[in-house]
């Protein structure tokens, strides 16, 4: 099992150039759990994730890992504990699956050192977890969107970090692949105890797969806790401006948001709650 | 292997062809009348200059292309070598400075050109297309500056200046080589050591940062090393057209993706220069400088790349 880490943000303000996107967010990420950040478009979900994963320097505030500011930890050492899968990573031309996954080993390798047995094992294991072992020698350009995303996650896994950030890992994927990816990430969390922090668009999948939810509205953290505590019709109205009724997911028992639009309201607005 | 054969070709061939034995004996330090002079004063420096400069162009160009993820992004196309040439011509024609200062000026100008391109093309986001377009623009400006300098320059300075404009191994001297040798020997290990970092930079800014690469400092060190190595090579042979541009992609074809491409690119560069020089010397009635031959090979490839990238929509 992965060790426990205390990852905290304290009054973090962040943004791009002179535009502030995130306003004074303080939070602690529950260790060894699956955490999901939700919120409307442009509410700062992605910015928050990038700031936590040190891609964006906060304008003010502090982000600490086990009590130490992440900006003070040497980058390579930090990269052995905290990993990130960006929303649209760049594929180098003509690269093979195994080669790409292997690049995740960078923070574990010495400047002039070659590949160790541990490196090969980590890459093989990552490909196995993501079910892409048989694709090892294929070129990335030949893969489907779902396979490609599994390859990127495998690269992040090869990095063998205790904490893994993922920026919308299911966007642009068919529903089948969305569920597949979330299942694989859950396997990873349950088997290895990897702390997962991700931004997801689908509220109902978030509510089903998350242990802990952070809800953002206009750059502020408005609620955080277990899905059943956080996902209420009031919160959805607040952050998305959408009327809804929240029922129990018939499969998982987690909260399930049923939107109420202007049409097709056949049974009234409170029918199932 | 090919490189080895080409090196020998450079030593053996000339207006008179000498037997291998004689050349070997001269290299080992013996004096043979006639052969000694031709080999150690003309052919050996020519071969070594081609070898080192080709290697330098290849490895430097490849670094740029990989870092910017675009084969067009290399010192020949985006005006860095032209910057070096313009400064050198300015020093020769207007300031009449010594050779050492000319070399220094060319290195400084190469770096200044990089800085210029960077400043002009940096917006809110890092755009490779913009870097290339700005670079091509700067290249055109510098070329017109060079034309102006040649027009106003004194007649007797023009030949020295021309050497900086078209790559040639003619008149390479033994005493020009130590500086280039030392810099190739010093800078190559730096570029190789950063090869892994370069591979990671290729994944983009965000992935690179999260894998623990200090992206800015790595980029600066790589740019400095590549520009220095290319400018020093240019100081010896002049800008040999398209070698920095061709070597990287050819090497990648040969060794496949995933391996460090630096050394192969350097070797391909050296091969290209030596082979082109042999072709230039002996394939035609007239002797052409090496830059003309590499230009003939390189220009169609540039056009092919532009067409292919335009189809893919990568230029916008």
From TrEMBL, chain A:
Pfam families: ABC_tran. This is Iron complex transport system ATP-binding protein. One of its GO terms (cellular component) is plasma membrane. The lineage of its organism: Bacteria, Bacillati, Bacillota, Bacilli, Bacillales. It is found in: Cell membrane. It is a peripheral membrane protein. One of its GO terms (biological process) is iron ion transport. Keywords: ATP-binding, Cell membrane, Ion transport, Iron, Iron transport, Membrane, Nucleotide-binding, Transport. Residues 7-243 form the ABC transporter domain. GO terms for molecular function: ATP binding; ATP hydrolysis activity. It comes from Sediminibacillus halophilus.
